[in-house]
Predict the structure of FabD/lysophospholipase-like protein.
Amino acid sequence: MQSTATAARHAPPLNGKQLRLLCLDGGVRGMSSLLILKKLMEMIDPDDLPKPCDYFDMISGTGRLQMSVQECINEYKALFSSVFKIRHRVKFTGKNEALENGIKEVVRKRLGDANALFKDSSHRGGCKTFVCATSGNTLEPVVISSYYSDRCVNDLREISHIWEIGAAMFLDGGMGANNPVIKLWEDAQDMFCNGPGLKFKDNLICLVSIGTGLGHLKALGNSEVGLEEADKQGLIEEATRRYITLERSNADLRKCKG
């Protein structure tokens, strides 16, 4: 018999449940991912767009604040206008007060506590979320989840604030290696297919991975992230809107509706 502690690590057995998984890139070009995701949500229900956290069973990259895509877009734009309005390079050396304060304000508005932990203690049976951040000391990828996972650094789960992880994801966006779709596959398999005879692939209705492309790879050195791409947010949005209006792109999105 499983112990209570062990059983709590896993979601209930699937029992025919069809899983939906979502993987999103981070970084300063994340607006592109949000616009594509909004288009997908519109295709699912144009009259009442579902929140990603209500539609997907596990999300890599976002979802902890349970916001709608439009709410994410609005906060993203507000963050850029206040944090990235200075047209020069910003050094992410583990401390960037403007970015941190901007994300703290978003967390405060959503949860009432700017210093809320990434760990989700509400015991909801809903969407599981995790992010891949980069250690400021070793530059190695670190996975932090809102739930207990054998594959994650659970000590960090207990102490990491949401704003800390949000700020770290901007650093990862400059590295060009921030799409953890393999990690999503592995963790979902552990979480949802933990019973005998369960076949993960047979219960997976869709795995949607929305990337932002590879930027110019640069040596991190002092952990500098150039903001030349942040200055091009208008171009990024326009290029993304053109992309999602193409029939080929619409056909791909329809396949992702699940």
